[in-house]
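Support request, please re-run this one:
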Amino acid sequence: MKTKIILTMVLMFLGISNSQAQFLKKLKNRIEQKVENVAVEKTADRVANETSKTLDTIFEGNSEDSNRKVKNKTSKQNQNKEDENVESNVNAETEEESSQIGFGVYSNFTFVPGNKLLFYDDFMADALGYFPAHWETGGSGEVVTLSDSDSKWLSLVRRSGYMPTLENKLPENYTIEFDLVNNGYGNGKPFSKLYFAFLSKKSYSMGSGGTLADIEILFSNTGFKVSNVENFGGEVEVKIGSRIDRQMTDYLNNKVHISISVNKKRLRMWVNQEKMVDSPNLLQANIGDYFILQAMDVLPEKGHFVGISNFKIAESNEDLRSLLLKNGKFSTTGIYFDTGAFTVKKESYGILSEIAKMLKDNPDINLEIIGHTDNQGDDSSNQYLSRSRAQMVKQILWEEFEIEYDRLKFIGKGETEPVDDNATEKGRANNRRVEFVKI
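Re-run finished. Output below.
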């Protein structure tokens, strides 16, 4: 079957125009991607090497890492099915030049996470039933697990405020991200509220937080609603009070990803990939020096559950282009993957879009994409995972953002080059990164 594909391509090659040659080159690149992704045993190693070698002869190019042995994770039956998919994909190229890999386009999701991690907590080091070690509260709460999630969650209850423990005040420019889950709401159930509050002084409640701003989230019997955005207090020069009333029934009794960007006075917030708030003058005076989550009437005895996980605060300083031109490289912890896998999460769209824009604006810049992991798991698995993740980033930049295939290389370094202490959650989060190096 593989020989048939290659012979077909050779026949096509004999009398093609320049435009067809470009298409055929892209087709070659796509086949290389397919071959790299096929999980095989000895037969697949031979197929990958022979196919790559033949294609390189035809196109006078070099395959990327053609001697790599792909890690086998499927049965022989699944391998045969993958071979059939490769052949069908080659045929499909004549009808549709570009394939989709399921990442999607989110033009409104321009969120780019900060590049200096200040705080991270996934609660994995905390005992179930206890309040987490790196948080503060004047109320109560505990670390729990959910039946449909591998994560641990901090349960927010009653009328409690929750503050991440930081050594210093928050900087002028920063980002906040976390997963938020809610359950137990609907017909006949009382509603609850959750506030994302930005304070001018340290406090465990909004009532004593000084001049402040907040975003109100309502969990009601009709949906998940972003209700109000406001600021108030004696230091506010211009009062901001906006009623949003963006109600989303799909987000009720569900999990969402919250992304918040603070740039001096400006605050923007996204729920999943949808922008909900963009207020250019909300954070006046010293508002935003501290951040708390304020629960209101989250009642476990009524069946309510509101929880957070994967909470991250990062400082935003230099942009990606400046870092690349100054240092010849930059790294980010803002490209997210499923746990133990290389599927890129959709909340990574903003930073990938920014990288693609930089590459399009600077056509002389080529990049090597380097995947890194923490030290959880064995060495060989981490090496494979880091390489697969780097490869997937390349594929998305190529397919979704139309960056030329040959401008991007990829490798994986596993856990071999940590930049922080793997003994802490924050350190491991810093080590789980993707690095881009100018070549």
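The longest helix spans residues 379-399. Residues 2-92 form one domain.
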